[in-house]
Amino acid sequence: MNVPTHSGYKVEHQCPQCGAPVTLEEADRFFECRFCRVRSYIYQKSFFRYMFKPSERTPKDRNIIYIPYWRFKGSQFTCSIEKGVRHQFMDMSRLAIPEEIGPFPMSLGLRSQALPLKLVSGDTAGTFIAPLGFKKALALMEAMLTAIKPKEPAVLRQYIGEARTLIFSPFYIEENRVFDAILNKPAGHAGPEILNAEKLGAFRPDQGTAFIAGICPSCGWDLHGSSDSLVLVCKNCDSMWRPKKDELVRVEFACAQTEPGDYIYMPFWCINADISGIPFCSYADLARIANLPRAILPEWENRKFSFWAPAFKINPEIFLRLSRQFTVFQPSPKLSRKIHGLELHPVTLPPREGLESIKIVMAVLVKPARKWLPLLPETKVTPKKVRLVYMPFEKRHHDFFSPEMRISIAKNSLTAGTNL
């Protein structure tokens, strides 16, 4: 298996087959146990729930109180009439209880990068405090950013490649003081709310984690993929699979055929969708609304078109550029389902991210912006068909190049994308 380089936090797991310890990066989903060699895929319902372990020096007679923090990571796209589409990368953590409850840090700081995390298990001793809802916490994070850098009113705000994680940090109470159970140092005075932790909404976090065997459901061969891949490949029966609940389901895919050469095949989500509110029914509509420098042919009125979006993580600017270029170009190569011997770039963005990108791509395309952008919030996107399509890019020294579309992707941008 290919193992990409990440710079996020590390998570301690156990092999579901032999119980051996396994330490993974935050984005890792697919791994091979170095002891029993069994391949497993980690599936998580909604979001991961992690915890820091208390220090070994923490008094054994103290009840550990686990305080929740929301951690959010992803690319934010903001659309305004004056400045068009702007983007920024967010990686923030935020205390997930009202701050007046106790002397707890507002964020995790560098702790999540410096210390390993563990999945919350049902047998963990201690009191877990119920968190604020994620939407409320995200609004507080956005307010913090706005206070630092005021923003113009947004017509549309969308997140692509976002990941939310609930992280519990341990504390305990001694002599009416709150102690950090990792540093074993006082954090501040214990008020009446924290002294009676049960009133804060103590609960047991739903783990919702499943380990799925990395075996092809169709032919029984080992599946392949990088550690952060969301789609696994069977090189024996030319099939692809993704997790759904506690099983693997088949992925509809195709590879563009090309002349022999040294290629890497980059994955894209090709999406057919009905758009209400803005006339995006045919390729002729696209040419008119995007004011493309092309004479509109009569046959374009009946020619359907697809939205395209990268199925891999890359910085927001390049993601938006590729989405626009592919959507305008509307590639239509001969397709094949044969993948044996092809070098496939891993799929690291799920299809829902492609769907969520459609309005952002529309915001970049429509002209004049003042006419169309105010309609975007109420525009409804109804997906009809979503397909994974691999497009060939020539390997060059510093980049990958598409001879058909005359566009390139810098290799270092893909390396940096593994950290997004």
Care to give the gist of this entry?
The chain is 16% helix and 36% strand. By secondary structure, it is of the alpha+beta class.
Structure, explained:
The structure is a single chain. The protein is α+β, with helices and mostly antiparallel strands. The chain folds into three domains: 1-45 and 208-249, no CATH class; 49-206, no CATH class; 252-417, no CATH class. Helix content is 16%, strand content 36%. The chain has nine helices and 24 strands. Strands 1, 2, 5, 6, 7, 8, 9, 10, 11, 12 and 13 form an eleven-stranded mixed β-sheet that branches. Strands 18, 19, 20, 21, 22, 23 and 24 form a seven-stranded mixed β-sheet that branches. Strands 3-4-14 form a three-stranded antiparallel β-sheet, with no helix packed on it. Strand 15 (232-234) and strand 16 (239-244) form a beta hairpin. The longest helix has 15 residues, at 134-148. The protein is globular.
